[in-house]
Amino acid sequence: MKYSVFIIFIITLFGCDSNHDTPVTFELNSDWEFKSTKDSIWNSATVPGNVYTDLLNNKLIEDPFIGNNENKLQWISESDWEYKTNFLVDKATLNKKHIELNFKGLDTYASVFLNDSLILKTDNAFKEFVVDVKSILKPKNELQIVFQRTTISEEKEKAKLSYQLPEGNRIFTRKAQFQYGWDWGPKLNTSGAWRPVTLNAWNDYKINEIHPQLLDINNDFAHLAINLKSKNNIEQNLDYDIYLNGILSRTQLNNSPINERHSKPLTLTIENPKRWWPHNLGEPYLYNIKLVVKDNERILDSISTKIGLRTIELITEKDSIGASFYFKVNDVPVYMKGANYIPQNSMQNKVTDSHYENLLNNVVDANMNMLRVWGGGIYENDIFYDLCDEKGILVWQDFMFACAMYPGDDEFLKNVQEEAIQNVKRIRNHASIALWCGNNENSEGWHRWGWQSNRSNKEKDEIWHNYLKIFDSILPETVGKYSNTNYWESSPLYGRGNPKYKTEGDAHDWWIWHDGYQFEHLENNVPRFMSEFGFQSFPSYETIRYINQNDTIDIASEGFKNHQKHSRGFQIIDDYMKRDFPVPINPEDYVYVSQLLQAHGITKGIEAHRRAKPYNMGTLFWQLNDCWPAVSWSSIDYFGNWKALHYHAKKSFENLLISKTLQNDTLKIHLINDKPESITSNLQLELMDFDGKIIWRDSKMIRLSLDNKMAYELNTKTLNLNPNEVVLVSKFSDAISYDYFVKPKDLKLKLLPIKQTITKTKEGFNIRLKSLTLQKNVFLNTKTKGHFSDNYFDLLPNQEINIEYKTKAKNLEDLKIKTLNQLIK
Ligand code: BMA
Is any atom of ligand 1 closer than 6 Å to the C-beta of 660? Predict the structure, then answer.
């Protein structure tokens, strides 16, 4: 029998041993084994982890992300799984007065045994569980966790109801709802200890939580209350040292010890405070706060947290049109630009710190300042919010309820209540948290998706009443009690079908895609805040190759088709493509055009929303990322490759945007500025043909303040232009825009070569490109792994551009260039 030995790192931070009696924490993450309860053979397991990765690591299953494997693996969620580990506890730890086991996340119905005693039964993957194990713990221990398949509890709960709730049995289980299958994700219902398991021991004092609250702030001072919750058996007064950015700011002797029953906040004043800003408006400055609690000179415990000094408010005020929906950060109305975020992997333990780092860097690179953490996934790991704080990305946080109606019995409500308290408290210190939202589309579903048909009034009343208990009572009260963040009941406020969606609250526009409406619908129907709208595309060649495990780009294989989870998905892409683009036969070309199509439609929406500022104050497209290799609405695919949409959204999300509209023969140039400073510059307009001949030019001095301005208007009839053969180049300050007068498929592009010069650089390669004709949507691709500084861009005639390719590859011999010119006959 193997035993993991705790190596106790004596905390030398505070000098000599006798000067502290601080709590100790050990992660129980080694020597785990697992098996199906029906099996007798144990295999090695990983904690934190889940049963799919454990089966995979032991080569007991094939990769669920390849081909049709997902379908062959459904037996896994129909089985029960058992995990165990053995561990030693040293004498010093055993002698501590208090010892607890802490389970940060068990997915989901788990029975936990320590040395054969049942110590815990769980029913919520979003909750942390703490168990006192002082009386059971021995020098040698066995910890065992049995995970029961979710269907058992779900069937039991279902049988208690005289009616069925939409949508399926997932609603009975508090775990990531997308694991039951979604229209962009596989059905991989996991089990396992998905977050760390720790052993915590202490004697007389332990800090449980710190919660700094900004009381008031001006340019000279910020006043904060530092709320502290601790377990405290010490009767006498304690000292509290507060370090601000490493400097001891204040020692305070409290008259009474701060403990759970009686807590009195400490206070802190920061002189000349620096405010935290979303990255596109300023520096996301964070202060480090460290609190050291002492009993005379003996250190009892310490805790650190980072805070950003900012105020955030959601402003929903009635106005002459409906009601506003915008965020004020530090009293400044801020336009929100971004996307909806889903879990990065169906197997959460595969998401490493660098996945978080890279993805959130990509968010900043694309000029996004807000992500919506969508309600069918998970309350994210701490690192996600840490990085959003650091990088200046605001977070719209949904509670984890999506596209369904949920039960309302006391046990379920109590479970939800505890989940909400824990998660609100866990993330409330983060500067990035802008909003808590109750659910995704539950209200819209109830009112618009036929969920009420064939139900008695009594049944309808009960279901809606249960909805209100959670989303109108438990959740807002929890958010109000434990945080300073605003709460919004459901996203969207009004669904499709209610005309008020355009005048009040946030909106999801799924007329595009699901209902097949023209992209132009986005331009003519602008809501106050667009929290979802999207269009699918195929992923990168790398991802397609991975799905098929084949070098050719095959998008018709059965295995590949399993990675399109929307029942009409392929057809919808095809239908839209016919409207605006050439429809290629060759799969490589088809994949490329599908990405151009997605970028074309979504940026049309983004720009229309931004042109309507300040009527509209935000645009978040669906969706940023993928949880597996797939055909989906994402702008970045599973392997981190930017699709055309991410490159194009980056341009449409610039603080300063030039955006063109053309209605009948009236051309309008709009300028949109998201920075609080005004800009005075020369708007320069040039109309050129595809050989670079200037047909017309004009310029105009413009003073642009915050918001948007229709800066230039022209009747194009006066130009006598051939609309299929011209591009309008507009420049204002450092912004530039290329615009066309017809659909991409109607452009009369020429087939001429692009001259390319590749040179090796420190970080990869520099690619210099030049052509005699306009090259539309130049797509650079290679089998090597790397990132192009720009892609899917237009190259003006005779213009020379430099693209940086960041890669570890030694050569770039396979670099290929695709353009729309090659596809338009
Ligand atoms: C939105 C989301 C998801 C869904 C997406 C695409 O409404 O909230 O539920 O995946 O549509 O259909």
Answer: no
Mutate to test the pocket of ligand 1, among 401, 403, 511 (most ligand atoms within 8 A of CB): 403
Distance CA 401, CA 437 (A): 10
Q: What is the pLDDT at residue 237? A: 85
Q: Work out the pLDDT band at 251, boundaries 50, 70, 90.
A: confident
pLDDT digit string, tens, across residues 63-93? 999 999 999 999 999 999 999 999 999 999 9
- Beta strands (DSSP E) in 330-391 are 332-334, 336-341, 370-373
CB of 505 within 8 A of CB of 529?
yes
Beta-carbon contacts of 183 under 8 Å, excluding residues fewer than 6 positions away, are 565, 566, 569
Q: At residue 262, does pLDDT exceed 60?
A: no
pLDDT at 20: 78
Q: Are 244 and 268 in contact (CB under 8 A)?
A: yes
28-46: average pLDDT: 98
Give the model confidence (pLDDT) of 457-467 as tens digits.
999 999 999 99
pLDDT above 70 for 10: no
Q: Given pLDDT bands bounded at 50, 70 and 90, which one contains residue 260?
A: low
pLDDT at 6 over 80: no
Is residue 183 lining ligand 1, measured as CB closer than 6 Å? yes
Strands 370-373 and 394-398: parallel
pLDDT the model gives residue 389: 99
Backbone angles phi, psi at 261, to 5 degrees: -75, -35
Distance CA(652)–CA(647), nearest Å, equals 9
Task: Kindly give the number of the ligand 1 atom that is closest to the alpha carbon of 374.
Answer: 8
Neighbours of 131 (CB within 10 A): 14
Q: Which atom of ligand 1 is nearest to the CA of 508?
A: 7
Q: What is each CA distance from 330 to 158, 308, 367, in whole angstroms?
A: 47, 11, 20
The sheet carrying 800-807 orders its strands as: 755-760, 764-770, 800-807, 786-788
Phi, psi of 295 (to 5 degrees): -115, 100
Closest CA to 132 of 96, 101, 93, 97: 101
Sheet holding 707-715, edge to edge: 656-663, 666-673, 707-715
With a 6 Å cutoff on the Cβ, whether 622 touches ligand 1 is yes
- 623 preceded by a cis bond (ω within 30 of 0): yes
Residue nearest to atom 12 of ligand 1 (CA): 183
Q: Which amino acid type is present at position 791?
A: N
pLDDT at 202: 97
796 token code pair: 């003006």
| Tokens encoding 662 | 């053309």
Closest residue CA from atom 8 of ligand 1: 440
Residue whose CB lies within 8 A of the most ligand 1 atoms, among 622, 623, 628, 633, for a mutation test: 622
What lies within 8 Å, CB to CB, of 121 at 6+ separation is 109, 110, 111, 112
- Alpha-carbon torsion (227, 233, 239, 240), positive or negative: negative
Computed over every residue of the chain, the mean pLDDT equals 95
Q: Which of 170, 183, 511, 625 for mutating ligand 1's site (highest number of atoms within 8 Å of CB)? A: 183
Q: Which two tokens stand for residue 190?
A: 């996991």
Distance 25 CA to ligand 1 centre (A): 40
State in Å: Cα 388 to ligand 1 middle.
23
Amino acid at site 816:
K
Cβ burial of 613 (10 Å; 0-12, 13-18, 19+) is buried
Q: Give the three-class secondary structure for 261.
A: coil
**Secondary structure class of 660 (helix, strand, coil):** strand
Dist CA 372 CA 374 (whole Å)? 6
Rounded CA-CA distance 165/405 in Å is 6
Q: Which residues are CB-contacts of 461 (< 8 A; sequence separation ≥ 6)? A: none
Report CA torsion sign: 12, 13, 18, 22.
negative
pLDDT in tens, 379-419: 999 999 999 999 999 999 999 999 999 999 999 999 999 99
**pTM score, whole prediction:** 0.97
